[in-house]
Amino acid sequence: MCSSDLKARAAALKALELDDRLAEAQTSLATVRFNYDWDWPAAQTGFRRSIELNPSYATGYQRYSLYLMATGRTEDSLAQMNHARDLDPTSISMSFSLGWRLYLARQYDQAIEQLRNTVDMDPHFALPRMVLGQSYTQKGTYEKAIAELHTAAQISSDAPPILGSLGHTYAVAGKRAEAESVLTELLEKSKKQYVSPFYIAIVYAGLHEDEKAIDWLEKGYADRSNAIIFLKIDPDLDGLRGNPRFQALVHRLAL
Predict the structure, then answer these.
(1) CB 166 within 8 A of CB 150
(2) pLDDT tens digits, residue range 120-140?
(3) Which of 26, 109, 160, 196 has the fewest CB atoms in 10 Å of its CB?
(4) pLDDT tens digit string along 75-92?
(5) Per-residue pLDDT at 18
């Protein structure tokens, strides 16, 4: 866990010590339990407590929906996320989050519509473009996917999650040289900054180099990379789901 995550935990704990009825602090601590501690029961308890304390706090439902999606409870996740968006309908964060949940639920047409609307709200917000590109990839619309992911990469100064998605799309589109070039870029970045092994794994998954992909996922598990919490539901990993090593890793994560 990095220093900022430790600070987030300390701040949430301090706030709860002062007043354990603060919904915002309950949500913050539950997010730490979910993303970094991998303490699934404690995370769920915290999210539910937050919603109980303040039923009008949209972020509580938003974060809880991501927890539910990661654990495979798709319908419940979408219900929570739709409620969050209804509570805060003008929020770009809620708009993006709903599009992301729809993508993870494999409702790609609905995701594309939602994410296009989000991009219209702010064309310089990279994450909606990334997930829009991922949605196009899953539909097999590779030219549109690559265009969105290129734009997202430019906006984000080549953020590793976006490069990983771009490399995966190149791979499944049959552009092996371009995918391998992205791999090289990610590996070079990893010498200067932390790059989650997850983003390297999804490129190998797209190249159908399954054992290498799982090697990198196992590194991500060992690193406690928070990207690994989406192991159970990430569409980019669907080609690995029949592999016994992959199944064993999902079992170890115990979502």
Answers:
(1) yes
(2) 999 999 999 999 999 999 999
(3) 109
(4) 999 999 999 999 999 999
(5) 57
Mean pLDDT of 139-154: 98
Give residue-wise pLDDT tens across range 9-62: 666 666 566 566 789 889 999 999 999 999 999 999 999 999 999 999 999 999
- Distance between first and last Cα of the chain: 19
How confident is the prediction for the chain on average, in pLDDT? 94
209 has a pLDDT exceeding 70: yes
3-state secondary structure the chain: CCHHHHHHHHHHHHHHHHCCCCHHHHHHHHHHHHHHHCCHHHHHHHHHHHHHHCCCCHHHHHHHHHHHHHCCCHHHHHHHHHHHHHHCCCCHHHHHHHHHHHHHCCCHHHHHHHHHHHHHHCCCCHHHHHHHHHHHHHHCCHHHHHHHHHHHHHHCCCCHHHHHHHHHHHHHCCCHHHHHHHHHHHHHHCCCCCCCHHHHHHHHHHCCCHHHHHHHHHHHHHHCCHHHHHCCCCHHHHHHCCCHHHHHHHHHHCC
